[in-house]
Amino acid sequence: MAIDRGAASLTKDEEPVCSICIANYNGGKLLETCLDSVFQQDFPYPLEVIVHDDASTDGSVDIVIAKFPQVHLMRSDSNVGFCVSNNRMVASATGKYILLLNNDAQLHQDAISTLYNFAAGEKINGIIGLPQHDMPTDELIDIGSLFDLFLNPIPNLKMFRRNVGMVSGACMWLPRKLWDELGGFPEWFESVAEDAYLCCLARLRGYPVIALAKAGFRHWVGRSLGGGKVVQKTLQTTYRRRALSERNKSYVMLLCYPAPVLQFIFPLHLLFILGEGVILSMLKRDPLIWKKIYEPCFKSLWYERKRIARERQSVQKGRVITVRQFFRPFRRFPHKIKLLCEHGSPVIR
């Protein structure tokens, strides 16, 4: 069947309802599939599609130029990371709404209409996400996520639960004005947990984080950085992903947790990741686990202490909800323990 790749493109002088921002690094064919799903949307209003190529070496740019000439292509001379890529795209976007979309994601045909109809019809000024499905199996992964107290995401599988702790940055919808108010992604995060940060910050400022049970998207979870998922009942991850995850989750806790809870939870968090790093290194007889994952986390927290203190002051100054309201989508039991009991210690590559 022929694909109408221009179905969602702009004509002259039209203002887009939504700007779809896709960060790409060596996405290749995944990016082509992603863009096809965008241009096949059942959506009657004009869309703007922006791709930021982060110095790819696999011919991704050639694919976009040859097959998707209506895409606004931004090319970086150097690899700047996921957060910078998205900030650049939104800065150039002209749509009323922003949809951040991973290059390894594929939208259901009614995804954008579902997001727009809910946001416009309910007059929602907040962050909205859709059900996330596994690309190879189409199995439901989550409808947004809750958190444990150590900021580990807990997949939400209850269709009636709309208000969640976060929605995945692989498919995240929000008004452009809200993005500007929140300040976008912290560029010093580089990648991983930037979606958790933005959702926590939005909730601190009184804006809802909502996961809809309709429509959805398919996603190659863990394809970009490797790991971060269960494969054949075994936890799979990489040194790099785990290092970024432990470091950036710590950043989010320090920035967003209200003081009464932070002063109790964060010392426990440091103690737990210290013990986790030592035990995993010894059990697997792999000193690189400590050297590549946990040691950099502690060093980064020390080196960035002044920046964290400045940013925290700004974040907490804008808090409009109570401590109880902030922790409403949190659960007490550590999710890591549940995962370890179910799947054993992770395979780290």
Q: Which SSEs are present, and which pair or pack?
A:
Blueprint: E1 18-24, H1 29-39, E2 47-53, H2 60-67, E3 72-75, H3 82-92, E4 97-102, E5 105-107, H4 111-121, E6 127-129, E7 132-134, E8 140-142, E9 145-148, E10 153-155, E11 171-175, H5 176-182, H6 194-204, E12 209-211, E13 217-219, E14 229-231, E15 234-237, H7 239-256, H8 259-283, H9 287-303, H10 305-317, H11 323-326, E16 330-331, H12 335-343, E17 347-348
Parallel strand pairs: 1-2, 1-4, 2-3, 6-12, 7-13, 9-16, 15-17
Antiparallel strand pairs: 4-11, 5-13, 6-11, 7-8, 9-10, 14-15
Helix pairs in contact: 6-7, 7-8, 7-9, 7-10, 8-9
What are the main properties of this structure?
single chain, 349 residues, alpha/beta, 7-stranded mixed sheet, 4-stranded mixed sheet, 12 helices, disordered N terminus
Care to describe what's here?
- The protein contains 12 helices and 17 strands.
- It is of the alpha/beta class.
- The strands form 4 sheets. The chain has a 7-stranded mixed β-sheet, with helices on both faces. Strands 5-13-7-8 form a 4-stranded mixed β-sheet.
- The protein is globular, with a radius of gyration of 20 Å.
- Helix content is 42%, strand content 19%.
- A hairpin with a 5-residue loop joins strand 7 (132-134) and strand 8.
